[in-house]
Write a structure and sequence with these properties.
It is a single chain. The protein has seven helices and 30 strands. Strand 3 and strand 4 form a beta hairpin. The chain is elongated, with a radius of gyration of 58 Å. The protein starts with a strand and ends with a strand. By secondary structure, it is mainly beta.
Amino acid sequence: MAPTKITHAKVLAAPEEADNPDEVQRKDWDADHVLALSVALAAFDLLSPSAGKLPYFDTPTSLALATLSDFARDNVLNAANVSALRGLLASLNKAGDTMTGPLVLSGDATAALNPVTKQQFDNALAGLRPKAPVIAAAPGNIDIASAPASCDGRAGVVGDRWLLPNQTGTAQNGIYVFSAAGAPLTRAADFNDWSEIPGSLVLVESGDTLHDTGWFCNADPAGTLDTTAIACSRFYGSGLFQPSSAILTTLAGLASVANLSAEAGLTGAADKVSYFTGLGAKALATFTSFGRSIVACVDAAAAFVVLGLGTAATKDVGTGANKVVQFDGSGKYPAGDGSQITGIGNSGRVLLATLTASNSASLADTTHLTSAYDRYEFDLQHVVLATDDTRLCARFSEDAGSTWKATGYLAGLSVAPAITSGSAPAYADPQTTFIALSSVNAASYGMSNASGRGWSGTLTLRKPSGTTNTKTLEGSGSYPTVSSNKPIRASVTGYYDADQAAVNGVQFFGQSSNIAIGVIRVYGIRTS
C-alpha cells in the first residue's frame, strides 16, 4: 500500500529547489517524513542548551548533549582533510611516516610479523662477532707458511683478507691477510686473539666456488690460538638448504643436497625400497611382504615367530646344560655326558681320546678320567716297543700327570702260549711299582718289537674318581714273543690302592724303551 498523502500539511522547500529563487514553493511530504520530523523536533525541544555542548542522538527518539572542547571546535571540526587532521593529532601514517621520538613497545614480540624490541635484538646478537668481509675463501687446505698466488680462483692482492675454513689442522682455521705469493699468511687483526674468535661471522665476497657464502667460526671461550680447534661452518650460500627459497613440497627444492638428489632421481614402484649404493647414490630393492613382516616385528621374540624358529634358535652350541649339541669335524657327537640321550640306553660308550705313538716316551691321558663315567676302556692296537724283550707298563697319577705313582701297586700278569703244542708252560709276573702288560723272558715270554705286531687288547678301569675303592685295571690281550714271534696270551689284573685317592691320569710306557708305534683309544662307559 502506498504511503498516505497529507495534502494539507505543507513545509517550505529549500530555496535552491524552487524554480524562482524569489518565490517559495510548497512541497507535499508523506506522513512518515512528517512523523519523523515531528519526533526530531520534539527531541530538540526537550534539550536544555548550554555553552560548549553539542547535541547528539543517544537513542533513535532522544537527544543528549556532549561537551565540545575548544580544541575540537577550533581544530578538528575545521580540519581541511585527513592529512591536516593527522598533523593536528601528531599520529603516524600507516603507509609510512617519520617519527620524531623513540617508539616504546609494550613487550617482546610473541608472534610472526610482530615488531622486535631492542632487548630481543641484543639477546639474539649476544655472543656473535660479525667480521669485515673477506675477498675469498679456500675450498681446501692451504700452506699458511707459503701462500699460493690465488685463493679459490681469485688472484691475491697485497692486503687481501682470506678465510681458511678447511685446514687439515683445524687449529689453523680463520681469517688471514695475503702479502705475497710464497710468503707466510698472517692472521687478520680482528682474528689474532682468542677472545675475538668464538661466535665469529664472516661473509665471502668472491671466488670460483665459495663466493657469496657466509661462515660461522666457533670455538670454546677458553682456547689457545693455533692450538685449539676452530670449527668453521657455512650457514649461507649456494648448496645449502635455505628456507627462504627452497620448495619443501618437492625433492627438487633440495636437489643441491647430494643424498636427497639421489633419492629424487629414483622412480618409485610398488614393493620397492630405496637404499644407498654409495655417497649420493641410491638404488631400489624389492621389499617383499615377508620382508615387511620382519621389519614390523617389535622384538626378537616376534621375529622368531615370523621365521618359524623354536626355542633352539636361542640356545648356544656346546655340551653343557641348555646347549645345542653340534657334530664335530668328523660328523660325530662331541665328547660329553650322554646319559640323558634317549634310545641308546644308560651304558653308552663314548670315544674320549685317541693316543698315537711315534717313538714316544709314553702315551698318557690326563684329561678325561673324571666322575663323568663309571668305567673307562682302553683299546690298545698294535702297540710296539722300540726295544725287544721290554715290558709294556701302565701307572696312574693323582695330580693330572704332574707326578706318576711308582708305589702302591699290587699287580699280577699271567702269560701263556696261545698255541699249546710245543710251547712253554704258563708264567706269572707279579709287580708292585707299576702294572705290567707284558713280561721279560726272551726265551719264552718277552715281547718282540717286530713292526705291525705288538700288544693288542682291551683294558678296563672302574671308578677312577672314587675315594673309597681301589683302582683296578684289568683285561687281556696278546703279543708276539721275541724268540719265535708266536702269540702269547696276557691276562692283566692290577690294583692301585696306595691311599684310595682319586686318580685323574693314566700312562702307558716301556719300562726301558720308547713306544715306537701304536694307537690307544680311550672310551668312557656310563653304567648308571
